[in-house]
From TrEMBL:
Involved in the post-transcriptional modification of the uridine at the wobble position (U34) of tRNA(Lys), tRNA(Glu) and tRNA(Gln). Catalyzes the conversion of 2-thiouridine (S2U-RNA) to 2-selenouridine (Se2U-RNA). Acts in a two-step process involving geranylation of 2-thiouridine (S2U) to S-geranyl-2-thiouridine (geS2U) and subsequent selenation of the latter derivative to 2-selenouridine (Se2U) in the tRNA chain. The keyword Iron does not apply. It catalyses: 5-methylaminomethyl-S-(2E)-geranyl-thiouridine(34) in tRNA + selenophosphate + H(+) = 5-methylaminomethyl-2-(Se-phospho)selenouridine(34) in tRNA + (2E)-thiogeraniol; 5-methylaminomethyl-2-(Se-phospho)selenouridine(34) in tRNA + H2O = 5-methylaminomethyl-2-selenouridine(34) in tRNA + phosphate; 5-methylaminomethyl-2-thiouridine(34) in tRNA + (2E)-geranyl diphosphate = 5-methylaminomethyl-S-(2E)-geranyl-thiouridine(34) in tRNA + diphosphate; 5-methylaminomethyl-2-thiouridine(34) in tRNA + selenophosphate + (2E)-geranyl diphosphate + H2O + H(+) = 5-methylaminomethyl-2-selenouridine(34) in tRNA + (2E)-thiogeraniol + phosphate + diphosphate. GO terms for molecular function: transferase activity, transferring alkyl or aryl (other than methyl) groups; tRNA 2-selenouridine synthase activity. Belongs to the SelU family. The keyword Transferase applies. Its EC number is 2.9.1.3. The active site is at 101 (s-selanylcysteine intermediate). One of its GO terms (biological process) is tRNA wobble uridine modification. This is tRNA 2-selenouridine synthase.
Length: 350
C-alpha cells in the first residue's frame, strides 16, 4: 500500500464526525456491533461471527500470521467480492463516510486496501471504535457539569416529555433510552444497550454545546429509565439544578395517560393481544407497592377495559393508579429533592 492509501481520520476530527453525523462503516463482527455502536453506523463486517471465532482460535493456537492467513482463506473468492461490492455501494452512497474496526488496525487496513484497489480511497478512524468510544466517554465527563441545568418535574401525566421536546435547548433522556421511565414505560421495540445510550447522550451534549446553549432543560428521572442507568456524572450535575414543577388538573392528566399509554400504545404493537399482555404485565410491577387487594381490583378493571375496549374503564384504572401509586410516590420523591433545590411552580394549560 502506498502512503497515499493510508488516509486517516485523526482524533481532532472526532467531534465533527459526530456532530455533523458523517456516515460510518463499522467493520466489526455482528456480535461486537450488537454490544455497542454509534448512531447511524452501518455494520458491514469483514468477517461474520463464525469466521471471527475461527480466526480467534487460530491466533491463540498458532499465532498472528497463521490467523491472518486463515482470515484471507475464509474471506476470498465470491465471498470477498460480495463484501467489497457492499462496501463500494456504501461509499458510493456516502462519499464522505469513514470506516473503522475495533482498534483501527488490521481489519480496517485490509478493507481500506481492498477498496483502494477498486479506486475507492476512504479514511479509517485512527484508533478505531475504541478511540471513538473513549472520546465520547471523556466528552460526557467534561460537558455534563458545564451546563446550567433546569429540571422539569411534575406528577405523571403532566406532559413533561412534550415540553422537553418543544425546546431546542433540552435533552430528552426518555427518547434516548426508548422508554417512558415508569412501570408502563416500555415500547414494543427493545431499549438500546447501555453503551449505545451513553454514546448518543454524549453526542447530544456535543451538539448542544456547538449550538451555543448554556442552559439545558431535562426531565426529572430516577437513577434508571427502564434498563438504562443514568450516568453518574449527569446525576451529579443535576443534584443542585433548579426545578420547575409542571402542574395539571387530575382530569387532564388522566386524558394524557389514556392518550399515550392506551390509545397510541395499542397501535404501536403488532397485535391488540400483545398490547393487552404488555399492559397487564406492567400493572403486575406495581403489585408490591399497591398491595394485593388494590392490585386485584385494578387488575379486574384493566382486564375488563381491555376486553371491552372501554375508554371509561381505562380512565377508571388510570385514575386509581395515579391516586394510589404514582402521585404518592412522586410527591415523596419531590419533597426529598426540594430540600436542596430551588423550586418554581409552572401551571400548564395545554
Amino acid at each position: 500500500m502506498t502512503t497515499l492509501d493510508f488516509l486517516w481520520l485523526e482524533p481532532e476530527s472526532f467531534r465533527q464526525l459526530f456532530t455533523r453525523q458523517r456516515p460510518i462503516l463499522d467493520l466489526r463482527a455482528p456480535a461486537e456491533f450488537a454490544k455497542g455502536a454509534f448512531p447511524g453506523a452501518i455494520n458491514i463486517p469483514l468477517m461474520d461471527d463464525d469466521e471471527r471465532a475461527q480466526v480467534g482460535r487460530c491466533y491463540k493456537q498458532h499465532g498472528q500470521q497463521a490467523a491472518i492467513n486463515l482470515g484471507h482463506r475464509l474471506v476470498s473468492g465470491d465471498t470477498k467480492q460480495r463484501r467489497i461490492d457492499q462496501w463500494l455501494a456504501f461509499f458510493q452512497q456516502y462519499p464522505d463516510g469513514v470506516l473503522y474496526c475495533f482498534r483501527g488496525g488490521l481489519r480496517s487496513q485490509i478493507v481500506q486496501q481492498w477498496l483502494a484497489d477498486n479506486n475507492c480511497r476512504i479514511r479509517r478512524v485512527r484508533g478505531g471504535y475504541k478511540a471513538l468510544r473513549r472520546y465520547l466517554i471523556d466528552s460526557l465527563e467534561q460537558l455534563a457539569p458545564q451546563f446550567d441545568w433546569v429540571v422539569l418535574a411534575g406528577r405523571t401525566g403532566c406532559d413533561k416529555t412534550q415540553l422537553i421536546q418543544q425546546r431546542a435547548n433540552s435533552i430528552d433522556l426518555e427518547h434516548l433510552a426508548h422508554h417512558r421511565g415508569s412501570a408502563f414505560g416500555h415500547f414494543p421495540e427493545p431499549q438500546p444497550t447501555q453503551i449505545d445510550f451513553e454514546n448518543q447522550l454524549s453526542i447530544e451534549l456535543l451538539k448542544r454545546a456547538d449550538a451555543g446553549h448554556q442552559t439545558l432543560f431535562i426531565e426529572d428521572e430516577g437513577s434508571h429509565i427502564g434498563s438504562i442507568s443514568i450516568p453518574e456524572i449527569l446525576r451529579e450535575s443535576l443534584r443542585d439544578a433548579d426545578v420547575e414543577v409542571i402542574e395539571k388538573p387530575l382530569e387532564q392528566r388522566i386524558d394524557a395517560i389514556y392518550r399515550d399509554y392506551v390509545h397510541r400504545a395499542s397501535q404501536a404493537y403488532p397485535s391488540y393481544q400483545q398490547f393487552s399482555d404488555a399492559l397487564l404485565k406492567s400493572l403486575a410491577k406495581t403489585r408490591k407497592r399497591l398491595g394485593d387487594k388494590r392490585y386485584q381490583q385494578l387488575h379486574e378493571v384493566m382486564r375488563t377495559a381491555l376486553d371491552t375496549n372501554s375508554e371509561k374503564l381505562h380512565k377508571l384504572w388510570i385514575e386509581q393508579l395515579l391516586t394510589h401509586y404514582y402521585d404518592p410516590m412522586y410527591d415523596y420523591q419531590l419533597h426529598r429533592k426540594n430540600a436542596t433545590r430551588h423550586r418554581k411552580d409552572v401551571t400548564s394549560s395545554s
